[in-house]
Design a protein that fits this description.
The protein is mostly helical. It has one domain. It contains four helices and no strands. The longest helix has 24 residues. The protein starts with a helix and ends in a 9-residue tail after the last helix.
Length: 106
């Protein structure tokens, strides 16, 4: 696999990752916690992407693996800020998948 193929895959995965991250996150969490969760998920997803596209031996080519992980991280953060958050799609998913708050007044 070439560096271009590796980066292309990382960009594609990173572009849709915020939608899946929104499933995990909760509206009540602080922005700092949300950013940490998003970054950790992007790094883990980047490693999985490297393994899925080139196998574990792909990690022998550190520059390919590192570039792919960084691509997933930067593209996921960028698309969230530029596309998914302004269109309110990711926040809607976050609210829709959050457990319902129980009414404790009874």
């Amino acid at each position: 696999m070439s560096l271009v193929d590796s980066l292309t895959t990382g960009v594609q995965v990173g572009a849709v990752l915020p939608l899946f991250t929104a499933i995990v996150q909760r509206p009540s969490w602080s922005p700092q916690v949300k950013k940490i969760i998003a970054a950790v998920l992007a790094i883990v997803t980047g490693v999985v992407t490297v393994a899925a596209t080139g196998g574990w031996e792909q990690f022998e080519h550190a520059e390919f693996a590192f570039a792919t992980v960084i691509a997933v991280l930067t593209v996921s953060q960028s698309t969230y800020d530029l596309l998914w958050k302004p269109t309110r799609i990711a926040p809607w998913i976050e609210r829709s998948t959050a457990p319902a708050l129980r009414d404790t007044s009874e």
